[in-house]
Structures are given as C-alpha cells and as structure tokens.
Amino acid sequence: MNRSLAVRLAWMFALAALTIFLLVGVALHHVLSSELGYHEAAELATRMEVIQHLVSRTTTLEKWLRVHEKLDALAPGDASTRVWALSRDPLFEYGDAPGTLRTRLLSARGLDQMVLSPDRPPYRILARTVPAAGERPEVRLVVALDTARFRATMHVFALALLLLCSLGVAAVAGLGYWIARVGLGPLNRLSEEARQIRPVNLSQRLATDRCPTELTHMAAAFNGALDRLEDAYTQLQSFNADVAHELRTPLTNLIGQTQVALSKERSAPDLEDVLQSNLEELNRLRTIVNDMLFLARADQGAAAANAVPTPLVPEIRKTVEFMEFVLDDVGMKVRIEGEARAAVDASLFGRAVTNLLQNAVQYSSPGAELVVRVEQDARGARVAVSNPGAPIPPEHLERLFDRFYRIDESRGNSGENHGLGLSIVKAVAAMHNGAVFAHSAGNMNTVGFTISEAA
Amino acid sequence: MRILIVEDEVKTADYLHRGLTEQGYAVDLARNGVDGRHMALTADYDVLVLDVMLPGIDGFEVLQSIRAHKQTPVIMLTARDRVNDRVHGLRAGADDYLVKPFSFLELVARLQALNRRGRAQEPLDLMVGDLHVDLLNRRAARGAQRLDLTAKEFSLLAVLARRQGEILSKTSIAEMVWDITFDTNTNVVEVAIKRLRDKLDGPFERKLLHTIRGMGYVLEARDEEPGIEP
Questions:
Q1: What is the pTM of this model?
Q2: Final residue belonging to a domain, choices B48, B83, B116
Q3: How far is A405 from chain B (nearest CA, A)?
Q4: Tell me: the pLDDT tens digits for A236-273?
Q5: What is the ipTM for the molecules in this complex?
Q6: Pairing of strands B47-51, B2-6
Q7: Chain-chain contact of B185 with A358 (C-beta, under 8 angstroms)
Q8: B55, B85, B116 — which closes off a domain?
Q9: Distance from C-alpha of A173 to C-alpha of A15, rounded to nearest angstrom
Q10: Residues in chain A closer than 8 A to B215 (CB atoms)
Q11: Long-range own/partner contacts, residues A208-215 (CB < 8 A, 24 or more apart)
C-alpha cells in the first residue's frame, strides 16, 4: 500500500483527538449533570425548609388557611414547583392530589423522582413528615421540582459538546496534516539530494548535519550503502582497467610478432617458432580469462556447490605432494600442523591451498620451511600458510588479495603469475562463507583463509 | 573413429574439422542444429562434438532429440561456464563438457577417453624405443640400464608411456599424475618433466621425451636427429 505518510499521520492525529475529546466530553457531561442535580436537590431542600418551618408553627385550622396563601405564593402557576401537604384530616391539607397520585405521593421517601403528568418530564421530589401539634394532625409534606430546565440545559450542552468535538477533530486532522507535511520536509530534501547522485558524482553524500536526529541514522545508513557501492564501483573500474592492461601485453606480443613473421618470407621452422610463441601468449590469455570468469562467478555470490565434509589435512597433503618437485627444487619443506574437518569443495579448496603455497614459495628464500597450520574453530576451519620472509608493510598487507596486486612489480610479468592467485584464494573463501587474512610478524608472513559451515 | 561436429562458429568449426581430420579421424561437419540433428540421427557416429549455442535449435535440444533414439557419446562445447549449464548438459545425457576457451589437445584427449571406454585392459609392459616400462613392478629401464626413479617420477613416466606419441597438456598431466582437477598456475609439471628428463634422457644419445612448445609433452621414439629439443 502506497499511502501518503502525511495523510496517515493526519488520520492518526484525528483518531487521537477524537478519543481525547470523547473522553473529556463524557466527563464534562457527567460533571455538569451531577452539579445541576446537586443544585436542584439544594433548591428542593431550601424550599422544604421554608415550608416545614411554616407548617410546624401552625397549630390551628385558622392559621392553616393562612399557610395556604403562603404556599400558593411559593408554588407559581407554571407548575415548575408544586407543593403538597397531606394528612388524615382533609382540612389540614394543601394541593390537589387525586386518587393514585395521593398514594404515590404518600409512598415517596426522601429525595426521589416521579412522573406527575404524562406530558411532562419527571419531577424531582422531596418528602418529609411534620409531627402533629395542637389541632393539626401529622402532615406529610411533598415538594416537587420540574426537571425540564435541567434537561434542556443538558441537551444544549451535549449538542454544543458534540459540535465542538467534531470541529476540534477536524481542526486537529487538518493541522496534523500540515504539521506532518512540514515535519517531513527534511525527507523530501533528502530524496531530492539522493536523486542528484549519479555515477559521475558517486562520491556525493547526503548532508547528515542538516538532518533532524531521527533521520540522521537513515541518512548515515544510506551514505554507508553509497560508500560500499562506490568502493565496489571504483574497484570494478580499476579492475576493468587492470584487465585491459593485463590483456594488452599478450595481445601486443601476438599482433606484433605475427606481423613481423608475415612481413618477410620465412622458413617453416621459423613460422613454427612464431606459432608456438603465439600459443604461449594465447594460453596466458586463456588463463587470465578463465580466472577472471571464476572471480566474476564468486562476485556474483556463487557458492561452492559440491561442498562435502572433508578432513582437510589429506587434501592439503595432496597439494603439497603436487608441489613437491617445485619445493624440492628450491630446497623448501612444508610442515602441516593441526587438524580440521570442514565442508569444502575439494577442488576449490585444493586450488586455494596451492595458490597459498605458491605464494609462499615465491616470497621466501631457498631452504625455508613453510608451515601450513589448520585449525578447527567454532564456525568452521582456518587454514594459514606461513613462510619466513621480509616483513610486509601494512599498506601492502591489506591489498594483498586485490586483483592484479603485486608487492613487487618487477616480479609480476613472469608469465606463471598473473597476480590473481590470492584473489582466487579470497574468492574460494567467499564461496565457502569464509574470509581471508594476512599478517606479518617478526620475519614470518602468514596468509590464509577461513571456511564457515554456516550456509 | 567417425566424428560429427555441430558448430556454427566458422573458425572454430573449420579448425576442429581440420585438426581432427589430421589426427586421423573421419570428421563430418554440421553448421546448425537442424542439420546436426538430421546427420546424427541418419548416420552412425562414434562421437558427437556439439556446441550449445546454435542458431535454430540449440545444443541441448539437439542432444535431447538424439538421446531419444541413440546413445552416441556426446561432448558439449560452450562459452558459458555456469554450473547450471553443466548440470543441465550432463543431465540431458552429454558424456563430457568443455568450456571455451578450451585447448584442442584437451578435446582430443577427451575424444580418446570416450573412445577408449569399454576397451580391453591395457598392457602391463610398455616399450618406447629402447625404454621399457614395467607397470606391474613399477620399474623402468633403457636398454639394460635401470632408471632410478622416484614414485612420482615413475607415475609421470607411466602416464606418458601409456599415451606414447600423444601430446599431453600440462593440465592433463597434472590430472593424471597428481589427480589435480583444478586450474593452477604453478610450474610443477615443467619441473617434474625436467627431472624426469634428466634421468630418462640425460645420459642417453636418443631423446624420448619431447616438449611441444605451448602445447605440452610427448614421449616417443623419433627417427629424426637427436639433440634439437630444448
């Protein structure tokens, strides 16, 4: 779903506002309602006080008639307040209470609500008994207050509340949308900046210093991705340049010597010689192309397809045996230390070990002893080849596995070695989820790789 | 041995045709998949050399339709070295698989290997000129003089003697002697050959182990004058 972030935020703001307004509204309604109820009860009580006082002082029928007048004044004609005085003696009564109404009024206790006529809302009533005094018998007093006003007030209040809530929610949504738009402004700026990045200005980065803190992480991560891409891109570019350079020499030889050969009448053995020389160059080209294709496959994330759990020492011994004549020639010995088992593709593994050994032979003096150290570790295995030799400066050490990288340029074009040997070791390690390492300490140089079981 | 080459690339097809003919094979050539399929199905060949990338129908398809009727051994050629391709090819019934750029010698070696299949066992004694290689007791002698060879040197000599007269590339020597199936850029084979040569040819007038520059090595008793080899 591809919805606008601002719209989303506005919706969320509106929802939050609605919830809060509703809660506050309900609370306000409740407070007002109970406050009004309290006031009504107080008014009822005040009137009752007055009437009760009036009635309790009245002990004769003559005075009771005067009470009538006063009660008439207390209960206005609009029936918003009604008063009854009920007793056993019909002479000492006030208010019109026919049949059932009288019974209901007599049954009322304390503060109560009662429907007095079907066309009016219920009345709030208060009932009290005044004990007998003189001629007057015990009188039951009932004061009723119409709740229509209360109800009307609550109704208007509820309406106002609802309207204000709706307006508030709408306003919050609108404002929220605007805030989100403004707040997301830095994101738009970042996208605009990102849009500007092209292969020609690959070193350009997003400006993290002007970013809000929340976006710094994202921008930094994006910049990190750009860093890695730039590295890969630069490496690829220089790799391409290196490839072109590496191929140029054999191609020049091929073209040149073929042209020279053809520019004059030659004897068959001479031509044969040229062809043989061409063949040597062509084989060199083939090796480079094959190795580069191999590296390209590793780059594309090819994994060792035929990896099976293998004891590593016998595999290493096999390659040492293969190298035996070469080692013998320079009086070198290889000592294999340790033991390990790991899932490897035997031929890839052998290739890596051969390259490491060859590298060690190339960079140590005759008579040296090379050590192949195999270790089992938590994640898999580790193979390191050490040879005595002049310390390798750190700046070379880290570039040792780069393609076509040679510490000693003059030894580079010896035909046998085209500078991809250790890159291939690295590729083989990568195909086994491993990595390469190199260190130089004292007069021992160690280069090796790891194999990780994790698929 | 009768061979059919199905290959559309003109230069490749031509040199294969010429090279294999000169090796003494009877070679037919088809320049596209449709012709190749037709020829493979109508005539009897000992081996098919089949390119994968062909116009019309590709090598895999040709292979499939041939396999539906015949079991002629097939070597596939391809410029794409994807493991999937290889698996695809071998599953579809190819007997072998060569990735371009491959060397001509390699192709010849594979053809011979396919042709050798199911033949009678090889002899246990080999003679090359006055060289006698006793495979059973792992001993070698020139004339009456016994050669003092290490185990590996003898293995190397045995491999060369078994294929006497055949040019063996460094790659196939590494594979046959050391069981090294991967590419290496070492000069092991050269060093080994040099050692063997010192013992085999050093003290003798007649040289048997010859270097073919850029191709490999061959063990044979040549009639020409000795001493011109490097």
A1: 0.61
A2: B116
A3: 16
A4: 777 777 778 778 878 888 888 888 888 888 899 989 88
A5: 0.71
A6: parallel
A7: yes
A8: B116
A9: 8
A10: 279
A11: A210/A186, A211/A186, A212/A186, A215/A186, A215/A187, A215/A190
Specify whether B136 is located in the same domain as B204: yes
DSSP E strand boundaries for B100-205: 125-128, 131-134, 139-142, 145-146
Grade residue A163 by pLDDT with cuts at 50, 70 and 90: very high
Q: Do residues A120 and A148 touch, judged by C-beta distance below 8 A?
A: yes
Collapsed DSSP state (helix, strand, coil) of residue A193: helix
The verdict on a CB contact (< 8 Å) between B152 and A325 is yes
- Rounded CA-CA distance A360/A118 in Å is 111
Select from A275, A322, A329 the Cβ nearest to the Cβ of B180: A322
Least reliable range by pLDDT among A30-39, A44-53, B87-96: B87-96
Task: Check CB contact under 8 Å for A418 and B185.
Answer: yes
Q: What is the CA radius of gyration of chain B?
A: 20
Tokens of A244: 């072109």
Using CB atoms and an 8 Å cut-off, which of residues 63-82 of chain B contact chain A?
81
* Cβ–Cβ gap A326/B181 under 8 Å: no
Q: How far apart are CA A205 and CA A1, in angstroms?
A: 29
CB A407 within 8 Å of CB A371: no
A287:B81 CB<8 A: no
Which among B98, B157, B183 is the top mutation candidate for probing chain A, defined by the most A β-carbons within 10 Å of its own β-carbon?
B183
Nearest to B214 among A276, A324, A326 (CB): A276
In a domain, B7, yes or no: yes
Residue B161 and residue B56 share a domain: no
Residue of A nearest to B177 (CA): A322
For chain B positions 91-150, those within 8 Å of chain A (CB to CB) are 101, 103
How many structural domains compose chain B? Answer: 2
CB A141 within 8 A of CB A93: no
For chain A, domains (ranges, CATH) are 5-154 (3.30.450), 213-299 (1.10.287.130), 308-452 (3.30.565.10)
Residue B214 to residue A421, Cβ atoms within 8 A: no
